[in-house]
Structure formats: structure tokens, C-alpha cells
Amino acid sequence: MGEKLLEVRDLKTYFPISGGLLGRRTKYVRAVDGISFDVYRGETLGLVGESGCGKSTTGRTIMGLIPPTAGEVIFDGKDIFSLKKREMLETRKEMQMIFQDPFSSLNPRKMVKQIIGGAFEIHMPHMKKPEREREVEKLLEIVGLNSDYLTRYPHEFSGGQRQRIGIARALALKPKLIIADEPVSALDVSIQSQVLNLLNKLQKQFSLTYIFIAHDLSVVRHLSDRVGVMYLGKVVELADGDKLYRRPLHPYTKALLSAIPIPQVGVKRERIILEGDVPSPISPPYGCRFHTRCPYCIDICMEIEPNFKDIGDKHYVACHLVKG
Amino acid sequence: MYKSEMIKKIPQRQPKKKSRSNSPWMIALRRLFRDKTAMMGLYIIVFLILISVFAPIISPYDPIEDFNLSDAFQGPSMKYWFGTDWMGRDILSRVLYGSRISLTIGLASRIVTLSLGITLGALAGYFRGRVDMVIMRIVEIMDAFPNFLFAIAISVAIGRGLYTVFFALGFVGWSGMCRLIRGQVMAYRESEFVEASRSLGASNLRIIFKEILPNCMAPVIISTTMGISNAIMAEAGLSFLGLGAQPPTPTWGSMMNFGRQYIWTEPHMVIFPGLAIVLTVYGFNLFGDGLRDVLDPRMKD
Questions:
Q1: Could you tell me the end-to-end alpha-carbon distance of chain A, in angstroms, rounded to an integer?
Q2: ipTM of the shown complex
Q3: Considering the domain B34-54+81-294, what is its CATH architecture?
Q4: Among A5, A95, A324, B83, which residue has the fewest nearby CB atoms (within 10 Å)?
Q5: Which residues of A lie inside 8 Å of B (Cβ-Cβ)?
């Protein structure tokens, strides 16, 4: 594994809930509650979890779209939360995001050349218009779209084509890191694999690093080198993709993996059905956050929060039952 | 072999050369031209604009200078189509010239409304928090006054005259525009394309003007068109009360005001300027309704 491109240290993102007449901030939604992980150059880190577990918030906080509550994010040696406005603008070029919904992520009033070319307008204000259009044409070709589409509007494209436009926009500034927030979950299954293959191709072509956020485990498996599993604002397990899929250690990961259907007639796997719902992130359970639903819960789980520890071979787990 | 040939034969769909623009605005415009109600309204508006531009050419008399006391209080005739007023001035000419004042007021007051409403609404909706608090409290105070009374109060406070009316009517209307814009901006600021723009490093100004506001324009256009007819009515009301443009400037409202005294004996002095107001307001309302049908997202597709 190469050097670290991104280090996330004890990152917390809370959303205040204003209550009362004077808007006092009484409670917080702990969307991301103290997570740490590293992302290495050129790899794909998958982040999986149920909806509401904080995976999208993590991505947006790293992008600086949501202010963090605590913790630090070190990107390429720079602590991005302490950067000045100008420095942040420069750093922005190096990390970009691909969004989930290809319909709301493109401004319906803008032409393709404006959507993709916006990046150049912001960062290279001296670039002449024809030159900008040439760059946009190049980007369109890179993502597999016809370069004649320059003057078209988003409503003229299909979901898959729109997502390609979104990818072209993210690539415009030649970023090092791309955070893909469920980039294919809104697409037809037949289109999903096309877009995933495109992402794969681009990663090799431009030596990109991905943080790939998804709730679909098979999609993540297809693309990721390492996978982090999130539950209620915490990373509960983080390991090499193969290792995690073959030998999950955290009970939650086990339950998640057992839910993947096996594409083979007659083969059944033992399914672990989780009871109940995800607890509220406003007042997460004491001790281990998963203890309310964990089939293996023991006394200590209800009282002490397990450490996120390395049990060897860069396999991190937060569970009392796993001995390192 | 056979198979690959089959595949090759499938014609690749060529992007067809476009003769028509496909921007969302152009699509709406094309739909607008097919909407009979809206086009009726548009014809009326264009007709009124032509009248006000060419008033000096088409008026048979000068609305102010050509008074002839011996012809006072004449009913409609071949010489004076709409009759004459108490000074013997031709009412047709005065009605034609009056369209200038009405349309100017309608448009000028909208400029005040739009600039105040869009600026403050966008600030409140985008920045939220304290900015929003302050602006919305002001809006609520504005809304607590009955609009027309407020316009009268402003007119009285800063003196009579045409410019006072521009300002008074514009100032009265901005709170509604501000609410409208604020709501729209609040909805769009959370959208993914705004986040995308922000992650590219776009400034707040760029996001507001290039990403958000172009998406908010449909309701603004509708409400502005409707607002023009309201402003024209309000101007007529103010003139009727003697607060608008001062005599001898011909305005529909003041013509009705002076005609009011003779309404039993010389009703034409009130009827013709009244009809002019009705026609104008009706035209703008028709057009506004048509625009709503075309632009309102809930009606789309």
C-alpha cells in the first residue's frame, strides 16, 4: 500500500436541533460521531452502512460542505479545517464529489458546457471561451459522451448520461481524490455496471483515489480495495475487501453480508436477521452502539464502548467479542 | 460473422442538428405561444404599449393644450369619440395619453419591487440565521399594514407626484416578492447541484446568481405580471384620491376622480377611463394566468 492521501482523525459532525421559542440548541443529531480512517493513494475505500448511518455526512464533511464539530481531516499533509479561504480554494481542486441523484445534481437551467465548464470559470478565470469549450469536449469524450452535447440541457439526457456529466464535472480540475456518494444507486441495474466500469477505467487513467459510499455491498465489493462498515455514526469494521467479505468479524458486518443473495439455485446461507430499528442518533445507546440489536450481546457491551482496534493485518474492529 | 454484421447494421443515432433551441425557457416560450388565453393577454398588452408609444400620433387632440370651454361636457360624437370633459378636452386623447402613465407606473413600480424583493429574499433564504430573522421581521411589519393605506401614507409623507407613486407602489409590493424568493432560494440551496458548485469552490455570490436564482425565475415572472395589474389599479386608486400625478397630467385615475362629480349627468367622463383600466388589468391578468400554466412546475408534463 502506498502513502496516505487522506487521514481522518476522530471526526465528529453533529447537527443541532433548535428547540423552544428562542431557538436554544438543546439536542444534537450525532450523524458522525468520532470516526478515524486513512485513505491511501490510488486505492478505493468503500464506506457501507444502512441509510442514516452517517456515511454521506462523512463524505460531505471531508469535502467541507458541512462544518465539522470536532476532529481533523488531513489531506495531502494539510489539515483542511484550518486552511484559510484561499488555500481551501486551491485544495478544493484536488478533491471532488460525485453525487447520488443525477437529476438534482445538474442545474436544469444550464447547458452541459456551463455545468462542466463552471470549474474552469472559477479556477481559471483567464481561460478563453473557445479553450474552455475544447476542455469540456475533451472531458465529455473521457466519460464516454458525444462531444456534440455541449449545448444541451440536462433534461435531454438519460440518468446514466447525466451521471457521466456529473463525473466529467468532478474530473474537470484533475482531482486526486473523488468522493463518490452512492453514484449508481439511482441508476438502472443495466446502467450501473457501465458507470462502475467507467469509474474503474478513470481510476487507472488518472490514478485517482476514491472514497466510494454505498449501501449496496456487491457494488462496493466490485470496486473497493478496502471497505469500512459504518453503524450509527461510527466505523465498526474496516479491512481489506476480500478479508472483510470472507471473514467478517463484527456482528453487524456479518448480518449485512448474510443479506447478500447468492446467485445460485438451491444454495442457502444462514441469514442473520437483525431485530428492531436503528436507534436514534440523537441519543445513541450507551456502551456499544450495536448492543440493542446484537445477537451476541454480553454485559460489557451495554456499559463500555469498544475500542476500534487493529487485530492484525490492518483489520480494524470495534467489538468486545473480537480479541486482538 | 453473421452476428457482428447484424450489429453493425443498427444505425447509430446521430445527434440531430438542432434548428430550435432546447433551453427550458425556449420550451416554455413555445408552449406559451400555443396558449390562446396567454396570447390574448399578450395582444392586449402589445396593443396598449403601441398606444402609449404612439399616443402623440394617434390622438386627435392634445390632451392638455386643446381645451375648448364651449365644447365642455359633450357626449360621444364623431368629433369627440369619447366625449369631452368639463374643460372641453377630448377624453379619447386623454385616455390614450393616460396609458403612458399607467404602464410606466406598472413597470417602474415592479422594478422597485423586484430589486428589493430579490436582493433581500435571496439574502434571507441563502444565509438564513440572523440575516433571515431581521429581514423576515421587517417583511412581517410591512405585511401588517394594509397595502393601499401604506401607499397613501408614503405618498403623503414624501409629497405628491409621479415618482412618489413609483416608489410607494414598489415599496408596498416588495415584501410579497421577498417571501416568494426566500422560499425558492431555501429550497434550492440544499439541492445537489448547489453542493456540487460549492465543492468546485464557487463563491456565495456565484451560487446565488448563477445556480439558484435562474431556477427561481418562473414564479417571479408570474407574480410580476400579476403585480403590474395590481400596481395599475393602485395607481388609479391613488390618482382617484388626488395623490398621484397632478393635473393637468392625464391619468385614468384622476380622470375618474374629476368625472365623479358629474357621474349622473355625464357618465362618459368616468366610463371610458374606467374601461381603459379594466382592459389593461384584464390583459395583464390573462397573460399572467397563461404564464402560470406554462411555467408552473406542478403543471409541467
A1: 22
A2: 0.87
A3: Orthogonal Bundle (1.10)
A4: A324
A5: 60, 63-65, 88-89, 92-93, 95-97, 99-101, 104-111, 118-119, 122-123, 146, 148-149, 151-153, 155-156, 166, 169, 172-173
